[in-house]
Amino acid sequence: MTHNYRSYLCRALTTRYGVSTDDWPPSAEYVVPLFSVIIDAVDLEEAAELFGAGIRAHRQATRPQTGPRGRDFAGSLALQLPQKDSSSLADIAAWASFQTIHGLVEQDDDADFETYLECALDACERDGGRPRREQITAAAGA
């Protein structure tokens, strides 16, 4: 658990959207505490992996499909994450929070999911050192 993550996330959002929270997308009010739930549920490195996987999955899910049917975001995200033998309650809480964030952002025309995830990765770096952001974002570009 980390106690500074939420303040680091708000700093990253301030850098992106401005000092006045009135200028932030409406969904920010709801996604900030949900990102904090993820950080409280899993460690910073695992959260950073999840956020990087979220970027890749979002790009894959929004890419025009040439086949008969594309994958939805959750399906694409599941393929991006390492497979585990079983899920803990913490894993389930992180997954549910992440799915909720994605759903909220999809309903907010002023928000950009990747921007939120980039801010979340920034906050991970500031809060706990460097969870290899270069590797995580490089893999997202692939």
Question: Topology of this structure?
Answer:
Blueprint: H1 5-17, H2 28-41, H3 44-62, H4 73-80, H5 89-106, H6 113-128, H7 133-141
Keywords:
142 residues; mainly alpha; 7 helices; 68% helix; globular
Task: Characterise this structure.
The chain is mainly α and 142 residues long. Helices cover 68% and strands 0% of the residues. The chain has seven helices and no strands. Helix 1 (5-17) packs antiparallel against helix 2 (28-41) and helix 3 (44-62) packs antiparallel against helix 6. The termini are far apart.
Proportion of helical residues: 55-70%
The tally of strands reads 0
**SSE order in H/E notation?**
HHHHHHH
Radius of gyration computed on alpha carbons: 15 Å
Distance between the termini: 31 Å
Q: Percent of residues in beta strands?
A: under 5%
Shape: globular
Low-confidence stretches: 130-139
- The biggest beta sheet, please? none
Number of separate helices: 7
Mean pLDDT: 84
Structural class: mainly alpha
Q: TL;DR of this structure?
A:
The chain is mostly helical and 142 residues long. 68% of the residues lie in helices and 0% in strands.
